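ESCALATION

Customer reports they have been waiting on this structure for their group meeting. Please prioritize. Original submission:
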Amino acid sequence: MTTTYDLPLSELSEYRPALEEPPDLDAFWAAALSEAAAFDLDPVFRPHETLLRTVEVFDTSFTGAHGQRISAWLVLPRQRPEKLPCVVQYLGYNLGRGLPHDVLTWSAFGYAHLVVDTRGQGGKTLPGATADTMPAPPGPHVPGFMTLGILDPAQYFYRRVYVDAVRAVAAARAHPAVDADRMVVAGGSQGGGITLAAAALAPDIAAAMPDVPFLCHFRRGAEIATDGPYLELVTWLAAHRQRSAEAFATLRYFDAAVLAPRASAPALFSVALRDPVCPPSTVFAAFNRYGGPGEIRVWEWNQHEGGQGAQVAEQAAWLAKTLA
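Update from on-call: job pushed to the front of the queue and completed.
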């Protein structure tokens, strides 16, 4: 079963659900980032030998949340007469940074490209290189990542992930080939939700490209998604019948639609109208609340794959214009 239109497009374009914002949201994230800042970022860029002729690859690491080292690839065009704008890419659910030849698109367009591992993920299709060291037992959870620590915002999995995302931007800025004033955050699905969080929480972002973003309007996703990780929430809530209010109180801190008004960089979204994983209304809930100038590309007949190469072409043209 797939979601064709959870709402008509005319309603989606005006969809602004009442999303409850925690009164201490800004203080919560200020504390999380301050806690991470106590650890030296210590970005390390080790040259990585490959047979690739047009790029240089660096096996990169930096210190993320709780002092844990996060792995990434930095891919640079070999020919670079000046400092380059940098696309910091966050990954889809349970994907890792993969191998360098898997991630050549943005360097081929002439950008520096940092591909950031998601801690604890990388068990599907593209391997990762970063574990998740839990600061404390997260409590009962459904297999996967959506309910890890769900009863305590300070322990919830995505607190660590969003902090890592902000630190990744700072790490990329530290490389001498990168233009620190032209930092772009981007990603699809889970990476799209992380992109919105980074755009809201990291300073001086130049552009954001959330593609079919996940992690937006959690309750709506749990109510109508028919595939994908929102169903982990459904399974947990079905078992913990009396604790749904506690769970959704935690999720408010991490909802990219709640964080979206705090972003100010120009953004190019995408949405797929037959998406059973990230239903269109969840994407529009974030897009319609986004704090900066935004555009959205609508893929009418696609499911969660969205526009794929056609969307990348849209992103490349939009980014060249936006950064000009």
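Sent to customer with the following note: The chain has one domain: 9-323.
Escalation resolved.
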